[in-house]
Amino acid sequence: EVSSSCRALRVYAALMGYIISSRDAKSAYLQSFLQRPGSNVPKTSVVLPRAFWPKEWHGKYKNPVVRLILSLYGHPYAGSYWESDCGDRIVKLGWERFLDDCPKISWHPKYAALLAVYVDDFKLAAKREHHDILCASCAEPSEARLAQRMKQLFP
User: Where in the chain does DSSP place strands (E)?
Assistant: First the structure.
């Protein structure tokens, strides 16, 4: 399925003579918190995979159940929290919301570029010479951000 935002991006690229590139956000949903101040998301518990256990848990626990605080893919609220968090970060990188009623498309005034976010995919329409700069600013911080989240969870 191709979203309307992706179709709009393709039309813009064709009209401007731009190229389109795609990137995936690594571990996208895990980059945002499920619980927000004032939210009434029901508490959810999950079995934490061994890869995320703190060192001191090994040999001490067999199948620890913990409260879910990150937006895990598949949770009914995860997508909206990821989209909100992603949108906030894109704005901090110099992008602007293209239309109020279309939060999935962002505009970069300096480069006259459009960025569409569809679930955890980024699609960028820009001049060829601007792609590396713009793609790096949007997609690369994800690994550091995931590591930062894990440190917040397990100091």
Answer: 19-24, 45-47, 65-67, 96-99, 102-108, 113-118, 121-126
